[in-house]
Amino acid sequence: MKFDPRLVDKLVIILIIVGLLIFELFIGFESAYGIPKISISIIIAVCLLILTIVRFDISLILYILIIPYTTYELPGLPFHIILADLFLILISGIWFIKILIKKSIFVPTQIDVPIILFLFITFVSFMNSVDINKGIATFIQNIEFFGIGYWIFTSNITNKKFLLTILKVTMITSIFISIKGLHEYFLLRKRIESTLGHFNAFGTYTAMIIPIAFSSLFYLRDCINPLLSISTLLFNSITLLLTFCRGGWVSAVFSIFALSILKGFRVLFFISIFIIISLLIFFRYAPEEYKERAESITVFTEESYGGRFAHYKAALYTISHYPILGVGLDSVGDYTYKIFGVPYGDIHNIYLHIGAERGLIGLFFFLYLFGQFLVKSYLNYKKSKSEHYKIFYLLGFASISAYLVVNLSAYQLVRGVGLFFPSIMGITMAAKILEEKELNNESPSFKPAPL
After folding, report:
1. pLDDT greater at residue 8 or residue 142
2. Cα 317 from Cα 290, distance rounded (Å)
3. 3-state secondary structure of 374
4. What torsion, rounded to 10 degrees, do the Cα atoms 191, 197, 198, 199 define?
5. H-only helix segments in 80-187
């Protein structure tokens, strides 16, 4: 019988998924076996390191799977680090070594300059931090979110099949996370947080997944099984509704309408029907307090938005006194406590938070970075001659649009979501790199991935 290496890849991925489920089940029971968490962490780190060295491509797939696991922090350390942080450090370290020994390369992309400019102004803000220890932790996080977490995909997704596999695993992961969320809501009788640790973070994650599921369902049916797309759409839509995260609802609706307007009336019609049916089901079966929450979306009062106006006033006050470079990285809480007696650490508006923390220059480069991504994605979509690559530009545009909209009333520059949005940007720009290579080398047409 002929050996099929793709079978091994499938088995490895299945084992990884099973391993994650076991990990999820036994995280809280290490004391029952007398094994301290630090020992578990060392074992995990060694296993991840071996996998990364032996199969770098599989390690990227595993990284996608564990990005949403934010509730497990590695113990015994003076700073907060989650499993995905650890794995990203390992992957990027091995990648850097591969570059040094000329086994890999850094591939330039269309938004490298905006990324570097934003990271530079973030470094300047770090130098102004009130607490240098908190500042360095946030600065390193930003390097993860805006640099390494993006370039690790753009430089290492080297063929079309792998690009599709990464997208499929992203969708499969969201289904697992949604199932855990449904377990919380129906069996534990609690508001859905899943593995992201907060309902707003989970709402942002699912809102970003929904336009991806729509895109694959309508336009990648020959490459991605429609059952996977439908399952992703249903599980994420249901759990997004049950988070009762208003920002997530609005951003999901905005992103899929943006998707439909760009792609055509037929999709707009189906999406409109889907949204209407979802709203009818929601207002028929949701508890009264959550119906009131949904109705409060259009009511702009301090009470309906849970004290956010106080956050906004504090941020605007800070910007007015430190307009150029801001009050310093991770210093908004210290400054607002000094002025108002309340530490408004995370302003519930990412734009006001960036402005207060890094000044109007930092806010400008933040908007420039995401603006460039959206513009380039749209232009790549319009210029592309490949119907398949077009969809990657489209889903990237819609998913990141959802992220930007939800952050009008949230600060989702946090672990989990903070590592997820650069992966979507990386997948989108990797498609552009592959399309350019295909045009230059006249490689074969787009074919389905083996997974």
Report:
1. 142
2. 33
3. helix
4. -50
5. 83-100, 112-127, 132-143, 149-154, 160-186
What the block records as the tokens of 435 is 């399309």
Which two tokens mark 424?
């979507």
- The single-letter DSSP state of residue 67 is T
Distance CA 325, CA 329 (A): 10
How high is the pLDDT of residue 265? 57
Distances (CA, A) of 16 to 62, 84, 86, 231: 7, 14, 17, 21
How many residues make up the chain in this entry?
Answer: 451
- Residue spans of the domains in the chain: they are 1-105, 110-451
Pair of tokens at residue 417: 């979501």
Q: What is the DSSP letter of 36?
A: -
pTM of the model: 0.87
What letter does residue 305 receive in the DSSP assignment? T
- Phi and psi at residue 73, in whole multiples of 5°? -100, 145
pLDDT at 425 over 90: yes
20, two tokens: 């994650």
242/259 Cα distance (integer angstroms)? 23
34: left (phi over 0), alpha (psi -120 to 50) or beta: left
Question: By three-state DSSP, how is residue 102 classified?
Answer: coil
Tokens of 248: 């997530």
Q: Give kind and range of the element (H or E) at residue 22.
A: helix 5-26
Torsion over CA of 177, 152, 368 and 212, rounded to 10 degrees? -40
Q: At what angle do helices 246-263 and 199-219 cross, to 10 degrees?
A: 20
The amino acid at residue 406 is V
Whether the per-residue pLDDT at 25 is higher than 60: the answer is no
Q: Taking the CB of residue 325, how many other CB atoms lie within 10 A of it?
A: 17
Phi, psi of 423 (to 5 degrees): -65, -40
